[in-house]
Structures are given as C-alpha cells and as structure tokens.
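Hi,

I'm pasting everything inline rather than attaching a file, because the server keeps stripping attachments. The sequence lines come first, and each chain or strand is labelled.
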Amino acid sequence: MLTPSQTKPQTVFADLGLSSPILKKLERQGYEHPTPIQAGAIPLILAGKDVVGLAQTGTGKTAAFTLPLLQRVQEALDRDSGHENIKRAIRVLILTPTRELAAQIDKAVRNYGENLTTRSACVVGGVNMKRQIKPLKQGVDLLVATPGRLEDLLGQKIITLDWIETVVLDEADQMLDIGFMPAIKRILALTPKARQTLLFSATMPRQIRELANKYMKARWKSPFPRPPKPLTMSPKASCLSPSLTRPRRPLLC
Ligand code: AMP
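And the predicted assembly:
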C-alpha cells in the first residue's frame, strides 16, 4: 500500500512557471526535480515578491534565484525588443561577500542563461578594474558584485543603479561578519524603492532580520516550511534557537 508521501506527486520544474528555454536548459543539465528552496522560491520570485531564504550553499539556492531572475529579465528584453534603442541597463544586482562566491554565481548566471539573450558581468576586488569596465560600458542586464568593488564603480560614476528592478543579498550573514553591512545599506539606498529584494542567509542573526524588516516590503519570513539542515553545523548555526530555525509564520508576502 502507498503511504501518503508516495502518492503525493513530486514537484517538477515545469510546475514552477519557468519558461521553455530555461526548462530545456535544466533538462540538459540533468536536474530532475527542484530542491525545496527552488520549489518554494521560484514561483514567488517570478511573481515579483520579496523573499527571505534561510539557506546555505549546497541547497540549490543559486539556481533558486538565478533561474526566475533570468526569466524576468528575458521577458523584459522581449517586451522592449521592438524598440529601436533597447534598454541595456543593470536590472538585477546580485551582491555576495567574496570573489569566489561571485565567480560561482557569475558562472551559474551564464550557464543557466545559455539559451537566453541576457547579458551579465561580474565585478570583484583584486582584479584590474579597466577589464571589468568594458562589458559594463557595453551594457549588462545582470551584475554580480562584491560590495567594495561595486562602490568603487559607483563612486567613479561608471555604473548607475537607477534601473535596478531586483537586488539579491546572497550569504547575508557572511556579509555582516565581513563588515559589509554599512556598504549594503548605502548601495540599497541608491536603488529604486520599488525594487524586489531577495535575501539569502545560512543564519538569521538579529542584524539580518533588522535589515530584512527595514529594506524589504514584507517582514522577514522563510518561505520554506522547514529549512534544509546544514551538512555540517557551523558554530553559529548551532547557536540558532528553534524559533529562528522554524519560523512560525507560513509563506511571506
Ligand atoms: P548551490 O546551493 O546553489 O551552491 O548549488 C549546489 C549544487 O547543486 C550546484 O552544483 C548545482 O549545479 C546543483 N543543483 C542545483 N539545483 C539542482 C537540482 N534541482 N538538481 C540537481 N542538482 C542541482
């Protein structure tokens, strides 16, 4: 006899509202089913909602925000495609704490967007800035950045955040630990208030909850009924109280 969990059909990517070029890419990638964070976040992000995700690396969170954002940017480009001067402005800004994480996200954006006409770039410190400026001047739709280098480029007026539609704060607790919180607040202040904001963090310390409360349209809630357990518990994660790891309220927005 089947148990209830066996009879419940497993979610497939097509159920989440993803477009066919993205579904084809996922098929070629060999992804059969969305991970819990993908199943929870993708429909909300496609609908333009703010999302707070309690998730760490290894849970599929990069695809959880990259796939729907690529789709939204592509839809906007398709809408504008009849116009003579199609707008190539940074619509999506993905902020992440380290060069390594930025490189991984950049690779994922390029990989998942293989069948699309979206353009992306990655700007991080410790790399010749001139080489980073060239693609920016040609126009990109999605920008992956570490906060320090992004502020350098903003200070030199090489880029503007006036056209931002979505900001992703990835690994927010790491950004807090590194001391990026003042920079993040300055950067958010330069983006349109009507933006979509997505925040992903392995832990939810007080400052991150305050950030979410202040800068996001919805008060912080994890859209995931039970956050995936970390493979190895960091000392910080093990300090989390059950009320933080198991949010009482259901879906956000
Ligand atoms: P992340 O948590 O974003 O660092 O992803 C961890 C790894 O899982 C990456 O190598 C992804 O390519 C892979 N991955 C992401 N989503 C899926 C999925 N739905 N099925 C199988 N692998 C996946």
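The chain has one domain: 35-79+87-226.

If the labels don't parse on your end, tell me and I'll reformat.
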